[in-house]
Amino acid sequence: MQKNPVVYWEIASHDAEETIDFLEKIFNLHVEFDKKSGIYEVPAGDSRKEFAGGGVFTLKKAKLPFLTVYFKVDDIDAKAKKIEELGGFIVIPPFEIARGTKICLFNEPSGVTLAMIQRISS
């Protein structure tokens, strides 16, 4: 098993509803809208699991649509430091998005944006 597996993905769209409609028609996806986050969640398998699946949302800040892959990590702050040491760039430093969950967005050296996610104890 991978030490830091890919556990989540996001599609940032100019129109999330249109994107979801398209993906549902193509792939027969089961989608759940999370009113709190405003994200259309696409669970992996038959039900929601911790950090499994993905989500689609409408862009509010970014100008270009994007796809982000999330890697599950044990120590997000240490990984962010290592990313910088190896020539990467921290786009959004580690922060708590929900109680018990931290994320960090970063560019690898060629500029591709990726993300990390960590479950933290409260």
UniProtKB/TrEMBL annotation:
InterPro entries: Anthracycline_SecMetBiosynth, Glyas_Bleomycin-R_OHBP_Dase, Glyas_Fos-R_dOase_dom, VOC_core. SUPFAM superfamilies: Glyoxalase/Bleomycin resistance protein/Dihydroxybiphenyl dioxygenase. Residues 5-119 form the VOC domain. This is VOC domain-containing protein. It comes from the Bacteria. Gene3D superfamilies: 2,3-Dihydroxybiphenyl 1,2-Dioxygenase, domain 1 (3.10.180.10).
